[in-house]
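In line with agreed milestones, the collection of sequences with tokenised folds has grown. One record among many is set out beneath this paragraph:
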Amino acid sequence: MSEITIASANDEFSHTLPVGPLGLVALPGCEELAERVDAYLAMWRKERELDFNGYKKDSYMVENSLPRFGSGEAKGVLNASVRGDDLYILVDICNYSLTYPMYGKENPMSPDDHFQNLKRIIAAVGGKAKRITVIMPFLYESRQHKRAGRESLDCALALQELVSMGVSCILTFDAHDPRVQNAIPLSGFETIVPTYQFIKALLRTEKDLQLDPQHMMIISPDEGAVGRAIYFSTMLGGLDVGMFYKRRDYTRVVGGKNPIVAHEFLGASVEGKDVVIVDDMIASGESVIDVAKQLKARKARKVFACATFGLFTAGMEIFDQAVNDGLIDKILTTNAIYQSPETLARPYYASVDLSKYIALLIDTMNHDMSLEPLLNPADKIQKRLAKYKEKQEAKKSENG
């Protein structure tokens, strides 16, 4: 049994009662992740002493559908009663693999379409659920979180709209700017940074890392990711942190943003060190590749890119070239959003599984317990590092 499985089956859960019967609603494009979450919840709850009607199930999934008319209009339908349930709705607004028919043509689903589907399902609940929590790993319109001139504030408006429809809490991962929660100050909002999951995946895929300041360094690709990099480095024992800042051309707008002229580096020497670039997302990939190129020019040994969301909007070919050129050794992103088969097939790509973590968050919330130990897993990280170092020492002893 895994660490999370053991944690989920402990006495704390058996001595608290859930808020209400648990229900999971997976919107189109999020079914695979939801099924994995559902399987963990069903397994954990079967091992507990609690045994009342509806607590132990083979599945907590609530069947739903979103049929569309030929004009492209749609409606949300729940195929089971949710009265009094503690509902958790999972949505992946980044799943671009889905399409819908409109006037005889197939249209790819955009984030706007996924968000509209979310509202349709909430409307189908009709206020009958005891509580609604939305789990939206990539926060809708999170990059449009502040105003510069005559601009819309899409993320703030979306959050307010969800709350007005009866959503009590929104769980997201690595929000582009956590301050967007100020738009809904009286409602639940959690932005979760999966540092433990990244460290676990990195240690699993790389067996020869030396986790000390002489051999390893954490890199922030821009000023916005510095806090994330500092937390990552602290959890790894106080590694040095380096930062790039983006010099932009503010006289032009390309693709909706000012183009980056250059990345300037601030920090100690990276020569001979393994470096880990940590960020919230990889979009086209041009930025992370340019950072990796500069790190290699400064004689870094290996370059690992860790990002919560791998959007890869320009395809994987530019990463293939970067790997072939020796700029990047490994890319790690989570399965919180859609991962194409082409991405998963890359030998340099590693998927970071968040299904156990999400299941534990849901289980804890359903029992109305504190999320603090899950949001700050410092002890778990230290245990994982100690175990990794023990294996390294054992291997050295075997080799003489």
